[in-house]
């Protein structure tokens, strides 16, 4: 007991001589744990805020009439180019239409373009990558060389070329953006398939006489899907940006209710006298892209914890 008391007293005197900001490390690394907990909490707050923003924008796309205070086609000649105010928090445009209502109603087409192009790109790219990685051989060479050719052209330039050739319209713009994203999804899926097809349970299934198609559907694809879905989440923001860019150039959906890119295009001529017409649609695009990227980064860390450690 005397020895323990003396040791405790010596340790206490030693700790008092250590600067306060280093005492936690001397005690046992609790300072590092506290820092990690703080960083984790900050990431959770950002991810939660991003999820709320995405949920709100999704609600705008599904039920815009519940959120928008005015009809997007309602014109008020007495409130043309009115600055942001209580009746019109985002101001009005050159027809007296409420900009906030236009953004809310334009959310549907903007998100539809982004989500549809990602879905089509994942389906086509995932299928091609699965065939290349699982079958291998000459088919793998042909598919991946074609993907390499597409990768030599920047994605937005490829989408612009395809959209210009096909013409404006929802189907054409979705197809243009989807084709430009196929090589990335195909390469990711091929890499996953090539790694998983060498696993022990795949060899065991082959030894038991399972058909190649059964092995692919039951074992290989389910264990390869997570990275592809994470990439699709991160690609949603890029698809929204690409869709807005094509709409800005007049290659988007030609409708009475414009999407976010068309709103930017229509308001650029009034930027010096009515800055709000361009600013708020641009902020809506920025908010959605940042929110989706935050959620995608968080999901990627959850799927691959080692990546977070390397970062």
Q: Superfamily at the CATH H level?
A: MetI-like
User: Roughly how much helix do the residues carry, as a percent range?
Assistant: over 70%
Q: Please, how many helices?
A: 13
Using the alpha-carbon principal axes, give the shape. elongated
Main location: membrane
Pfam families: BPD_transp_1 (PF00528)
Subcellular location: Cell membrane
Keywords: Cell membrane, Membrane, Transmembrane, Transmembrane helix, Transport
Describe the protein:
This protein has a single domain, classed as MetI-like fold, CATH 1.10.3720.10. The chain has helices at residues 2-16, 20-27, 30-62, 64-67, 99-135, 137-151, 155-166, 170-196, 200-207, 212-248, 260-267, 276-303, 305-310. Mean pLDDT is 82; it is low at 20-40. α5 runs antiparallel to α10 (212-248) and α9 (200-207) packs across α10. The two termini are 48 Å apart. It has 311 residues and is mostly helical. The protein has 13 helices and no strands. It is a multi-pass membrane protein. InterPro entries: BP-dependent_transpt_permease, MetI-like, MetI-like_sf. It is found in: Cell membrane. The chain crosses the membrane at residues 45-67, 111-134, 146-166, 172-189, 228-253, 273-296.
């Amino acid at each position: 007991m005397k020895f323990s008391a003396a040791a405790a007293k010596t340790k206490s005197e030693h700790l008092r001589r250590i600067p306060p900001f280093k005492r936690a490390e001397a005690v046992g690394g609790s300072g590092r744990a506290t820092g990690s907990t703080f960083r984790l909490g900050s990431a959770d707050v950002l991810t939660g805020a991003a999820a709320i923003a995405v949920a709100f924008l999704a609600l705008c796309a599904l039920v815009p009439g519940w959120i928008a205070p005015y009809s997007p086609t309602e014109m008020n000649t007495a409130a043309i180019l009115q600055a942001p105010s209580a009746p019109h928090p985002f101001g009005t445009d050159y027809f007296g239409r409420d900009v906030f209502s236009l953004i809310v109603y334009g959310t549907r087409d903007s998100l539809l373009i982004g989500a549809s192009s990602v879905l089509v790109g994942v389906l086509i790219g995932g299928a091609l990558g699965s065939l290349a990685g699982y079958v291998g051989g000459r088919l793998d060479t042909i598919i991946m060389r074609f993907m390499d050719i597409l990768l030599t052209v920047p994605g937005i330039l490829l989408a612009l070329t395809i959209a210009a050739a096909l013409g404006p319209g929802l189907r054409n713009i979705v197809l243009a953006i989807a084709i430009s994203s196929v090589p990335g999804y195909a390469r990711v899926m091929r890499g996953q398939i090539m790694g998983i097809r060498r696993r022990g349970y795949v060899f065991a299934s082959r030894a038991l006489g399972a058909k190649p198609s059964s092995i692919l559907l039951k074992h290989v694809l389910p264990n390869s899907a997570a990275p592809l879905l994470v990439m699709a989440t991160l690609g949603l923001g890029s698809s929204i940006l690409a869709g807005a860019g094509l709409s800005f150039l007049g290659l988007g959906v030609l409708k009475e209710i414009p999407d976010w890119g068309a709103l930017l295009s229509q308001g650029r001529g009034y930027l010096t006298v009515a800055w709000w017409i361009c600013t708020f649609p641009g902020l809506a695009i920025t908010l959605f892209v940042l929110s989706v990227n935050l959620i995608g980064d968080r999901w990627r860390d959850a799927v691959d914890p080692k990546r977070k450690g390397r970062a």
